[in-house]
Amino acid sequence: MSFILLGILNSQAAAGGGPIVAVAGYVAGGFNGSIRVDTVDKLAFPGETISTLATGLSVIRNALTGFSNANVAGYAAGGSTGSLVSTVDKFTFPSDSRITLATGLSNSRDVVAAFADNAVAGYVLGGPEPPTTTVDKFALPSDTRSTLASGLSRAKFSGAGFANSGVAGYYLGGDSAFRTDEIEKFAFPSDTNSVLTTVLSDNNDQSGAMQNA
User: Fold this and answer.
1) Is residue 59 scored above 70 in pLDDT?
2) Among 82, 145, 181, 210, which has the highest number of CB atoms less than 10 A from its own CB?
3) What is the per-residue pLDDT across 135-155, written as a single tens digit (0 to 9) for each?
4) To which H or E segment does residue 27 belong?
5) Within 10 Å of residue 33's Cβ, how many Cβ atoms?
6) Where residue 29 sits, what CATH number does that domain have?
């Protein structure tokens, strides 16, 4: 599968404790129609100028996911090199220097979703193969990983994720034996999971997600 790219947001608090100010967005890895790539492109705000980081992903791969700890680091997790990987690369802001976490995902998988509770934890959810209920949690800023005792309500892959930081993270749609319109909610900080009675407008997988923080 070659349809998932990584989106990472670097943002910071304005001087004097004002509102969050965005710095840059990042897109990492992917498939260009011929080969997988390890490229990380950076779109600087507000000028929307594009540059390519001198240091890309540690492993050429596609179908990965990403989450961010605002003004601290962005994370590129999982994916496929042709074989599934558990790799998690960390790009420290503002230098954009990369390290690879000693502890990656709990198992190798791609077409995963992610969200973050800013400055608290990042979460990587679902994925094949076979489809899994697994939700890995990376505590921030230590990057220590645990796996939630209660994961997704059923095994899914190729869903989308976003978060209302400090409140809850959401896993939307996805596929297992069939595509679904379900929305799952992980309440912070307990990480308790519930399935909303509200559903998507259609049964979707391979979707993207975003939030207005």
Assistant:
1) yes
2) 145
3) 999 999 999 999 999 899 999
4) strand 20-31
5) 6
6) 2.120.10.80
Task: Write the CB contacts of 18 (distance below 8 Å, at least 6 apart in sequence).
Answer: none
Angle, vertex CA 115, rays to CA 1 and CA 119, nearest 5: 145
- 65-69 and 168-172 as β-strands: parallel, antiparallel, unpaired? unpaired
Domain count, the chain: 1
- Higher model confidence: residue 177 or residue 125? 125
Nearest to 2 by CA among 27, 25, 36: 36
| Cα–Cα distance, 91 to 99 (Å, whole number) | 7
Q: Which residues pair with 125 in a beta bridge?
A: 113, 135
Position 169 in a domain:
yes
Residue 149 neighbours by CB distance under 10 Å = 7
Q: Give the side-chain half-sphere CA count within 13 A for 123.
A: 32
Q: Is residue 200, in this structure, part of any structural domain at all?
A: no
CA 150 to chain centre: 19
- Is a pLDDT exceeding 50 seen at residue 29? yes
The owner of tokens 């992980």 is 186
Indicate the average pLDDT of the chain. Answer: 89
Domain of 54 in residue numbering reads as 6-195
Q: How many residues does the chain have?
A: 213
- Provide the pLDDT confidence category of residue 176 given band limits of 50, 70 and 90: confident
